[in-house]
Design a protein that fits this description.
Largest sheet: 5 strands, antiparallel
Number of helices: 12
CATH topology of the largest domain: Beta-Lactamase
Radius of gyration: 52 Å
Order of helices and strands: HHHEEEEEHHHHEHEEHEEHHHEEE
Distance between the termini: 66 Å
Number of domains: 3
Structural class: alpha+beta
Strand content: 15-25%
CATH class of the largest domain: Alpha Beta
Number of strands: 13
Helix content: 40-55%
Bound molecules: adenosine-5'-diphosphate
Length: 498
């Protein structure tokens, strides 16, 4: 049950309750109707039996005035009573049929009156192979002058129950049909209403899922739910969720602002440390080697200089990311926008990387292509990708930069290496800030985990995107796509390989 969504659970619950109510109401209506029809029928039967009895008694009395009377002579013609479609029989004291109406059978439909004379009218059921009838048995009792009650026979009036059963069947079918239609309507309508009512919950779920799936929470935190006008629980849920988003969003921008401010504030002291460490190192190097304790001093000065340079790079990266965060799409990090020859940028990056490569085969496969962008930032982006490729590719490996116009609208730059590759689970996270696949190896290679975040920020600041495909042990391809692309005429530039 817990796997079934709330809207379905509500619908099932209410439909079951409605089904119970409908069954109870249906059974009551059917039983009340049957009782009512039967009691009408019984009234009719009793009245007819009483009429016949009255006629017999009158005849008997008339005859008695002239001599001994017999029941047989006193029984009237029953034709007048059968017009109502009734079965009428007059039985003698032994239970034999003295006279029967046209439709009535000749076999008795009821018992003879008890000999004791203590006879009471009775209602019963009589069955033949063809039909069932409801019968009223009214004993004929003669009162003597001594006050004795002598049973002399019985008047039996019956009516076939066909019509009653037919009426009941139609009624039951109508009730069943109405109940089924009601249940279907209730289930469909209930589900629809429950779904509509729970829509704000779906919106909250979707908003929360979007925030959970967005590692940088840049755009997802700006989203707000529509607050429904009805002042109900769902309105409060949406309003409360929005208020929570306001808080989280405020906390998030405070954190961003803090990062930006801290990086900025640390710049000046760091510049001083770097300057002083430089002086310190030069001074230490100038001192004679024979001076006691000079070696650890020189090592310490070199460490300070190396680490402060590393810290400087980290601060620049953090500042760049903070600036990218401060505007929608990170546009503020692209300052000098111009036509940039991507093949030139790629060739320049290859030359720079060659210096730090361990001997890997660096190749360029570039069409002469321009995009509109910030040349320095695009160079920085490609340097990040090449730096990573060199770090993760053995000396015997190959690294290729490819530059193409994928379409008129899209320029494509990719860096393909034959290095260690990235596992599938990590591929989705390598663009996250401070994320390193293997921390121990990452530290050894000096990475901070910010390189690809910066590459991504630069690509997005140009309205583009970056993606990775990789197989462990085979290599990786990082692909950057930028909007707008024009191929330069053959005379103006040429595709080259190095
Ligand atoms: P880092 O400063 O550690 O290089 P990045 O953000 O540039 O940080 O990269 C994140 C992680 O992605 C790295 O730690 C590395 O493990 C992995 N990675 C990046 N590029 C490659 C590559 N070309 N081949 C294999 N792994 C890579």
């Amino acid at each position: 049950m817990s796997r079934i969504p709330v809207r379905a659970r509500l619908t099932i619950f209410f439909t079951l309750i409605l089904a119970l109510i409908l069954v109870a109401v249906g059974l009551s209506v059917a039983s009340i109707a049957r009782n009512r029809i039967q009691s009408d029928m019984d009234d009719r039967l009793f009245r007819t039996a009483a009429d016949v009895t009255t006629v017999i008694e009158q005849n008997f009395n008339v005859q008695s005035a002239f001599g001994p009377a017999t029941l047989e002579q006193a029984v009237p013609d029953l034709g007048a009573f059968t017009s109502r479609g009734l079965l009428v029989q007059v039985l003698d004291a032994d239970g034999a049929v003295l006279r029967a109406s046209e439709a009535a059978p000749t076999t008795p439909l009821g018992d003879p009156p008890p000999a004791s004379g203590d006879a009471k009218p009775a209602v019963g059921i009589a069955k033949t192979s063809a039909w069932t009838a409801r019968v009223v048995n009214l004993p004929l009792v003669l009162s003597t002058r001594d006050g004795d009650q002598i049973p002399i026979g019985a008047v039996i009036v019956g009516e076939r129950t066909d019509t009653l059963e037919e009426t009941m069947r139609v009624l039951e079918q109508t009730l069943l049909l109405a109940a089924v239609a009601g249940l279907v309507l209730a289930a469909v309508g209930g589900y629809w209403i429950a779904r509509r009512a729970l829509r704000p919950v779906d919106a909250v779920t979707a908003a929360a899922a979007a925030i959970a799936a967005d590692p940088e929470m840049r755009s997802s935190l700006d989203r707000r739910l529509d607050v429904p006008p009805a002042r109900d629980e769902l309105q409060r849920l949406s309003a409360t969720f929005n208020a929570m988003l306001d808080h989280v969003s405020a906390a998030f921008s405070t954190q961003r602002q803090f990062l930006a401010d801290a990086s900025h504030e640390l710049r000046t002291p760091l510049t001083a440390i770097r300057g002083n460490s430089d002086v310190l190192r030069r001074q230490a190097d100038a001192l004679p080697d024979a001076l006691p304790g000079i070696v650890p001093v020189r090592e310490a000065a070199a460490d300070i200089q190396r680490e402060s340079e590393r810290m400087g790079r980290l601060l620049e990266d953090l500042l760049l990311l903070a600036r990218a965060d401060s505007t929608a799409g990170g546009a503020s990090i692209t300052q000098r926008t111009a036509h940039v020859r991507l093949d030139d940028v790629a060739a320049e990056v290859i030359r720079t990387t060659q210096v730090m490569a361990d001997g890997q085969d660096l190749r360029l496969d570039a069409e002469a292509v321009t995009v509109s962008g910030d040349r320095d930032r695009l160079t920085q982006l490609l340097l990040v990708l090449m730096d990573n490729a060199v770090t993760h590719t053995p000396a015997t490996g190959q690294i290729t930069i490819t530059v193409r116009c994928e379409t008129d609208q899209v320029a494509m730059i990719s860096v393909t290496d034959t290095g260690s590759g990235i596992g599938e689970a990590d591929q989705a996270r390598v663009f996250d800030r401070f994320y390193r696949v293997d921390t121990s190896r990452g530290r050894r290679t000096g990475g901070s985990g910010l390189g690809l975040s910066i590459a991504k920020a630069i690509a997005e600041a140009h309205g583009g995107s970056i993606s990775v495909t990789s197989a462990v042990g085979v290599g990786s391809t990082f692909t950057v796509r930028l909007p707008g692309c024009s191929v330069v005429e053959a005379t103006a530039g040429d595709a080259s390989s190095s």
